[in-house]
Batch of 4 targets.
Target 1
Amino acid sequence: MEILEILKKYSFVFKKSLGQNFLTDPQLLDAIARDAGVEETDTVVEIGAGAGTLTRALSARAARVVAFDIDESLIPVLRESLSGCDNTEVVFRDVLKCTDEELNEIIGGRFKVVANIPYYITTPLVMRFAESTLPVDSVTVTIQEEVAERLVAEAGTPEYGAISATVALRGDARITRNVPRRMFRPVPNVDSAVVRIDFLRDKFGDTDVNKVADLVRAAFRMRRKTLFNNLVSAGYAKDKARVAIERAGFATDIRGERLSAEDYVKLYGELNSVD
Ligand code: SAM
């Protein structure tokens, strides 16, 4: 049975507040699973199973799928739409409220995250996995195009912000495809894009990237302020901030948005070596 018919059969009511816009095109769903690099030995954690359309596509390519959703009214729909997907289980929990220990217990090994999620949980979700010590190889998210552009933005571009630098500290991010709004049911009022982030845990060697991420947050706290002023507001002594910025090779009036993740690693090193 067609997914829209299954939803109708169970009188499913779409909840805008949960970002319930579902993808139905099998070719697109398979393309997203491919974009995520899902292979037959992989465990995939899907966030936001919805009606299970992407879950099915993932199930066909992976060894195992653990799909999360928070809307229990999807239970009868998923029971039907995922029938025959024996390598798939659905967990009705908010993944953002699960601890690493709980997730480890549920997932139990290395995994890839795939998610088509509402815009308001994009940053917390990406950061949840980027910052965790869980054995997660990558996160592939279908999100509002504008947010996708921010995740992959290069330093010095208008889209570049703390989230772009923070993601670049942890790995490599790229847009793998655009998904026009007409591909969703119901049709939302924005277009989407698929972003794949591959985590590279030793991208910056021994550097504590969580500390560099704190520096990035401080540098972007007030976007119209210079990097120097933001560092001083964050508690760095003026002399220390000025010398470190200069030793890292930047003008003292530079703004945080000009610095790449590599530059922040360099600046962090200088801040630590200035007395
Ligand atoms: N994966 C399906 C698809 O591609 O058609 C559904 C995607 S729909 C955009 C997002 C889904 O995420 C909804 O089913 C919603 O209930 C679920 N959701 C929203 N917030 C969530 C959260 N914090 N944890 C898990 N699922 C969530």
Target 2
Amino acid sequence: MKLNERGLLVVISGPSGVGKGTIREALFELPDNNFCYSVSMTTRKPREGEVDGEDYYFVSREEFERRIDENQFLEYAEFVGQYYGTPRDYIERKLNEGKEVIIEIEVQGALKVRERMPEAVFVFIVPPSRDVLFERLMNRGTEMTNDIKKRIEKAEREFHLAYKYDYIVVNDDVYNAADRIVAIIRAEHARTERSIHKYYEIMEGKEDVEEES
Ligand code: 5GP
């Protein structure tokens, strides 16, 4: 039985090109997972194959700014000249339903979530080496050279912010990385501060202890 019934907000973050997106996909391929993905909103143009409402909600700058004014984002950031933001409502609803909500965001945004929802779990993804990251960014083929350069410079600065996260996961192999995140989520549910209230209720006889299903 799980003592903490509320879902966890799991923030997967790290420099562009570390493989956050593929790790997230691997998490969702796991059987019997209880995850849901919060689709972000962006003003960036869709890449080939990207689907509106699945990869991102693609909107204009005007629309994004209107939503900022309406306080619709848990966080948003400007990244290489484009806005990216996490809609707030969906997350609250899913956490209350007991789902683990995965968000995959860049570093500035993750640090804002840390201020607003310190109870979330913050995972910093790192590449097995600097060269691997730079190669990944160079070989993406979807970005303009100038954007790649900006992404590399940004990644260099962001490596120094790893200490602000709860966990560091090396993306040496995407399935290993996903396994480590699952282990982190399990352990986080068992943390005393998340589970002690329910535990006391059980011990005071207000709740029946159920067998693990
Ligand atoms: P890309 O253009 O490669 O899809 O994303 C650029 C960066 O923005 C990535 O590091 C990605 O994780 C991040 N990102 C995606 N959605 C959000 C979001 O809602 N908020 C923030 N702060 N970053 C995001």
Target 3
Amino acid sequence: MSVHRKICPDPVAAARACAQEILALLDAALDQQNTATLAISGGRSPAPMFEELARQRFDWDRVHLFWVDERAVPPADPQSNYRLAHELLLAPAQVPPQNVHRVEAELPPGEAARRYEAEIRSFFRLAPGSLPQFDVIHRGLGADAHTASLFPGEPLIDDREGIAAAVWVEKLFAWRITLLPGVLLNARHTVVLATGADKAVALRNVFLAPYEPKQFPGQLGLREGIAMKWFVDQAAARWLE
Ligand code: 6PG
């Protein structure tokens, strides 16, 4: 598999291109199977991507939505990744509620992670020890090169067996629930949206520094031969060109 990079003029153009890619990948999956699975990340960058997804005439009835990660807050909290997606995508696109598999992040973090993992095991009908294969995973990139809620130095970056976990993020002084690397690397297709000048150093390290995912978690997937497409804007790609 190969890694592609698309450099767009600005964050909205990159977000829209990423949205179009997600829809194309889901369409292709639905040509082959009854339902498709998409796991989305949160943060600020995906907002125009969600809006673009909702704007397109797309049959969400056959798509099941999961989260790559979630803040340990209730769904109505302004920090909630679910809340952002609900506002900009789930509600406007009328994604059927039974297709939405949110993290119950209002629960204690460990319990939320266990319940989320159980939901994934049940949906994918996983045999013990096996990992889900999402048709499409959307990841972001933090200014510190974190992806999902796998922050630099997180021991679970070495994990390849687990599905989901609660992680304490010291720099944020907050709990997160996140999919683990084995699941991220098992995706049929990965799209990464990274925009804004504040991501330029992280992108340079991801693509130009030695491969060390513990230091630059965004590198996960770059050397494992997975199908990965990066959507960045010129400001974020400043040190790549
Ligand atoms: C989250 C995300 C996280 C995000 C990066 C980038 O919960 O924050 O899932 O991994 O992709 O932090 O966030 P921004 O888009 O806000 O820069």
Target 4
Amino acid sequence: MRPDAQPIPYPQAEAVASATARLAQFPPLVTSWEIERLKTLIAEAQEGRRFLLQGGDCAERLDDCSAESVTSRLKILLQMALVLAYGIRRPVIRVGRFAGQYAKPRSHPFETRLVDGAPRSLPSYFGDMINRPAFTPEARRPDPGRLVEAYQHAAMTLNFVRSLCDAGFADLHHPEYWNLSFFAHASLSEEVRRQYEAMSRELASSLRFMEALGERSVDDLSRTTFYTSHEGLVLEYETALTRQVPRREGWYNLSTHLPWIGERTRQLDGAHVEYFRGIANPVGLKIGAGTDPIDLLRLVDRLNPINAPGKLVVITRMGADNVNATLPGLVEIVRSAGKRVLWVCDPMHGNTAPAPDGRKTRSFNAILEELDRTIDIHRRLGSWLGGVHFELTGDDVTECIGGASGVTEADLNNNYATLCDPRLNYQQALEMAFLLSRKLGN
Ligand code: PEP
Ligand code: CO
């Protein structure tokens, strides 16, 4: 057995076994056809013919499995995808951190707080798939029954996402219905405001033109294909949903299309890499500022020994201040070894900082800066940045600071709703898409 860098301290092994036995009997959430199709799209993105947009909550909550929550998360992602496709002039592959993003790696397995003046240690909150956030022994005890509940909520979420995508989002094609009120905000310069307005006008008119072309193209446009992804952290859950399928070789993780390995579990000889190298899905690999180029090359070889197209997505999350020093060496070594990867930038996880009150926040400018620098580095090295990865929500939260909507440190109290990392709110996410679209389109 390879070491698991984030083992879940389950108190009852039999209960885990019976939960995973139930999971193993449930039908899959996704199909191998969809997974193979996504691999083909990723292979095209690796060649610069498509762009990938991945986004959603840091940690999905089981309680977020509601019509409003799913609709608003899906809507912001689809709107961003349209804005990006318009600027980049390439189709965008849409991937949610949806329907399974219920488990979180933690820096410490235990959390200590003062309770009635005395320090008390309890297991950390590992996400709704494992335990509950309240700081009580009952809530924090890892409960294997939650593995089954997570599957059920993923199934309900995905069912609704599929229905919405099949029916087409009526107001997606009418940017006049989008919430673009940030255009009016005072902190935007006149020039940027004019650019945003021109972009959304042109976007609206191209969409109307396509609609006028006839029903087929409208149908094609509105029947959006949407893929799911989550961090493959809890191997009990992932393996129970890993299956063989008729007439195909290998093993598929049928809980999601694009599982990824987190920065904390990517050890070359660890349990997660061992699991991921055995599945046929495309695989994401998150790497931070401390990544050694030789280690990256070893990981790339381990996860994709035959250098198959569409297989590996490398998600860099360096932090705006580190990207210039670390990214070029990584891009160079992969390129000179002739390895096929899709480079994606996650500008969120390297830019987390404490606000004065201790809560985690991220600045809109730092996020944008990491994207800007990453794009410049890829351009300079003749490489293609083929995607972006965001933590965001469709709601009006106040967790990240900045952007034209003008969230300040003082506003964090208004609606700081995340249990984990700070997310871009609706307006920040849409503005980010406009800025990226402009930069990538140049
Ligand atoms: C995440 O994506 O929520 C996460 C924990 O990322 P990373 O592994 O990059 O820290
Ligand atoms: Co996160």
